[in-house]
């Protein structure tokens, strides 16, 4: 589960030995790349560029192959998110309960586009296509914690909690 | 006394963790001896958090319970629904796959066994591979992920393939909006999936399994991972399954937010650590799947249904259903409905009965305008089609599909042109990019629908033609099925695509 991330300014890119320590436990797996990328993102909040060379060396893949994988999946970030990540479901069941207008109001209020981070770095707002909470729509998730029947008021509470 | 508070993520999303916390504190304050069990959900999401109190072996249901209701609940001042089994929504169901979901502690293997768990596996262990495959064929089980391919035939192909290593891969990349059955069973009865995969492994001669769970399901990943460890410790997984000398083990893997990875070949690429692009078929994954080896790729519900087939016998399972749609389907009722949740029933119930009676119509109280069945690639059905029985062939006849059996209800405020546009937009966002009809077609689809919205009625013909190209030319169901929601919206709700719409508003 995602934990809140340190502020961006606290981060210096990890060096190769640190990266190797994170990815080493996965070397014996069949198809180890995604577990490694998840572990890196869990550790740093994003997949740092300093991880590319150790990953490519460990798996005998090219930098192009690695970049191809990183860019394919919505989950992997090239830079840190805000301290907290608020995901709002945009899928049909939530739309049937007014999620589209609710998300529009939220983004407008924060002055953000999807994937944007508030100026104070507190929260990044991302779209998600289904959290499997379709019988208690609209749904959202804050740092891995799920919320059902989300309303404007509930979102305000969430924003206050994460300091946005 | 025992108190059950679900740990299913839908219950959590509605405050179940807080309720459990307050209950524990309040019970301690009162000096009550209480065992709080975090069960799965019974599937009646409008009643969540649904708390059950067991006294003298009898469980009484209360819900929805807010943290502030806990005092009154312990005082006995909250009205009960009686037993869960007597709540009409539940009483009407035929629970085979979900028989234990919400009843047991999901992470207690003793509880699992006490409620019929492992019976199927014990029976399968004593059977030959031939007999195992025959049992699955006889049950009539078809792929519950959406394609409806006969599970036994898929297993047989893998069984007959020659390879040093074969795999069972469980597709738990449940990305369709309106579906949550996979999540519910993984969070509520994970051992049934493990048991089903183990039977598949024994039947096909595969010793290794993977469960590929989407990253949007952190709770399911946690429960499933823990359940695998428990099963291994209990000897249900490992080199000597229940002392049989047969081997099977599995790993839980996490997806990375790509909808298309629910497509089996794309999932296999993702599992291998590649971009989740779709592979051309043939070769079938059953012959050249994970790492090029014979692989069964089955949906969670298909595999989780296997134990009951073996425990009760194939004939028992096949005695439910309609025509070639045998057995039961966990139908997920979602969106704008009064009673949302999971309703497992034999195939054959008319759609209208599901929407109007079981789901109780819309939550907003407004008339039902449309129902999307089968996720973002499923057709929108009009109330005129409500007498369609819930079955693979019956829906096919309506140019629709049941998919993973999620039904999303919309009231009359829905604008079907925007829903059609969303379907194309979603396809454009999630396309893996391998084939042109999907990659380019979806983008052009959004543009074309925008032209229709601006009053260009000539673009309707263009959209129709584009959908035909996508249907015929796409490599997988993402591009190939996106025309289902688009064309059904256009066919059944032409007024939403008419030029006077803008003027009238």
Which key terms come to mind for this protein?
heterodimer; A: 164 residues; alpha+beta; Glutaredoxin; 2 domains; 4-stranded mixed β-sheet; 4 strands; B: 505 residues; alpha/beta; Rossmann fold; Ubiquitin-like (UB roll); 22 helices
Structural features, described:
The complex is a heterodimer of chains A (164) and B (505). Chain A is of the alpha+beta class and 164 residues long. Helix content of chain A is 40%, strand content 11%. In chain A, a hairpin with a 2-residue loop joins β3 (140-142) and β4. The longest helix of chain A is centred in the N-terminal third of the chain and has 12 residues, at 33-44. The mean pLDDT of chain A is 93. The termini of chain B are far apart. Chain B is an alpha/beta fold. Chain B has helices at 9-13, 16-29, 70-75, 88-91, 109-114, 119-125, 129-139, 151-160, 181-188, 190-204, 218-233, 264-271, 300-312, 314-318, 351-358, 392-396, 416-430, 436-453, 459-473, 477-481, 483-492, 500-504, and strands spanning 2-4, 35-37, 51-55, 58-62, 167-172, 208-213, 249-254, 295-299, 321-322, 325-326, 328-335, 341-346, 368-373, 380-381, 406-411. In chain B, strands 12-11-15-13-14 form a 5-stranded mixed sheet. A 4-stranded mixed sheet of chain B has the order 2-1-3-4, covered by helices on one side. Chain B has a 4-stranded parallel sheet with strand order 7-6-5-8, sandwiched between helices. Helices cover 41% and strands 14% of the residues of chain B. Chain B contains 22 helices and 15 strands. The interface between A and B is large, with 46 and 67 residues.
